[in-house]
Each structure stands twice: as C-alpha cells, then as structure tokens.
Design goal:
The protein is α/β, with parallel strands linked by helices and 246 residues long. The chain folds into two domains: 7-158, Spore Coat Polysaccharide Biosynthesis Protein SpsA, Chain A; 164-242, no CATH class. The protein has helices at 17-28, 45-55, 74-84, 113-116, 127-137, 164-181, 190-201, 204-218, 234-242; strands at 7-13, 36-40, 60-65, 68-70, 89-98, 103-112, 141-144, 156-158. Strands 1, 2, 3, 4, 5, 6, 7 and 8 form an eight-stranded mixed beta sheet that branches. Helix 6 (164-181) runs parallel beside helix 8 (204-218).
C-alpha cells in the first residue's frame, strides 16, 4: 500500500539559475523523498507564497527560496518536528547558515496547511509579519529552533551564490524594512560592518553590499507592498553608472 507524503516542498524562483540548480540538487539528495513544486517567477512575493495555499495537497508544506541549500536530513527533521508539535503549532522555523554574514539566521519553515490556509498572504511590506500577527491573535503558535552561535543547529546554507546586483538588492531591502518596521535588531551593527568588510577586502561583492545598505538607509521609504523582482530599481541603476560590475 502506497504511503502518502506528509509534506510538499515549494521552491520559489525568480530565474537565478546558479542558485536554483544548487537548491534542486540538494533537495534531490534529501533522506526522504517528497514532492517538489516550483513556483516560477510569480510576483509579488505574497502572490508566490499564496500559491502554496492553493496548490498544496498534503498536511504540511515547506517553503524554500532558491538561495536555500538544505542539508540531506533537513526535510525529514522539519517533518518530524511538526509531527511532534502540539496541534496549535502552525509553523516550525529552523535556522540556516547565512554565507554572507557568517551567522545563523531564520530560516527554513515547515507549515501546517490546515491552519495556514486560514491566513492568506497579503501584499504588504512584509507579508509574513502580518500573517504571523494574525495567527497569534487567533491562538496559534510559532515554534522557532534556537539559532545558536555556529552552524551546528542549521539545516542548510543561505546565499551561496550572490552577485553584485543580488547582494545590493538584499541589503537595500533589509535596511528599508529596518527603517520602516523597526524590527530585526540584529541588523543594526551591520551598517558599520559592511563598511569595515569592504575596506578590508576591497571585493566588488562587498562594495555592492555596502552600497545596497546605504541605499536602503538613505533612500525614500518603500511602498507598503512586497518585493516584485520585475520592478526597476532606480538606486541600483544609478549606482551601476558609477560602479560597473565588470
């Protein structure tokens, strides 16, 4: 008798082939075989995430960005954690090792579909923040594994294949959200760290991380909506005129 899979793995991609190939290869190497569905170039981000609610046919689902490289036991461990959690736990979040900042961050998530589908993703500056607030208000819980100080608690790597353009957008968005939402306190020291890192290395990748951070800090506040990779980035276009990536 065939046993139905507990979990669907959803991979969101905006067409970054280096990240996507690595991500899929590591999903193929998981210790449990689970269906993988690709959400290909759907924007904004909230619309991509909403497809998980609409397409999921299993009790659980895992959301994987294409820049997440999961270790072989990651899906099996996430599935076990949610199976063992009490029934009002809507989501378990585990840390990943961020290759850019060399620290553990949150992270890869597994969701209980029956709960999550009650809370659609909304097109706000941070759709997951709004969604979590709504879930907690309804009496559901989020279980987050401890970050720890090294890679030992991490279920994979994050951000192994940045380019100058993608790392600029990363740090620009991080600081834009910090300036508007006031959360993610770990970001605060990174304005100076990005400067010190670039002056020490002189690497183009570190330069673009710094420039992205500055753009996010001093630029106009972003609209209250999720990122859309199709939108032009005026700050990046101006920077490229003065600091070509080649």
């Amino acid at each position: 008798m065939e046993v139905m899979a507990e979990t669907t793995i959803f991979v969101t991609t905006i067409g970054d082939q280096a990240n996507f190939r690595d991500c899929i290869e590591h999903l193929k190497a998981q210790t449990v075989e689970r269906p993988v569905e690709v959400i290909d170039r759907v924007a904004p981000l909230s619309a991509a995430f909403q497809q998980m609610h609409e397409r999921c046919r299993t009790p659980f689902y895992v959301q994987v960005d294409e820049d997440m490289i999961l270790f072989p036991q990651a899906i099996e461990k996430l599935e076990h954690l949610l199976q063992e959690a009490q029934h009002r736990v809507a989501m378990v979040c585990a840390p990943l090792w961020d290759c850019d900042t060399q620290q553990a961050i949150y992270g890869v998530k597994i969701y209980r579909h029956a709960i999550m589908k009650q809370f659609p993703y909304e097109n706000t500056l941070s759709c997951e923040v709004r969604q979590i607030e709504q879930m907690k208000a309804a009496g559901y819980f989020i279980q987050a594994l401890p970050l720890g100080g090294d890679r030992s608690n991490c279920l994979g790597d994050h951000g192994k294949h940045y380019t100058p353009v993608s790392i600029f957008k990363r740090w620009q968005r991080i600081f834009q959200k910090r300036e508007v939402l006031g959360n993610n306190m770990w970001i605060e020291p990174w304005a100076r760290r990005l400067l010190e890192r670039y002056t020490a290395s002189g690497e183009a990748l570190h330069l673009y991380a710094l420039l992205g951070g500055i753009a996010g800090i001093v630029g106009a506040p972003p609209p209250d909506q999720e990122a859309d990779f199709r939108d032009p980035n005026e700050a990046l276009e101006r920077i490229l005129r003065y600091f070509p990536t080649e």
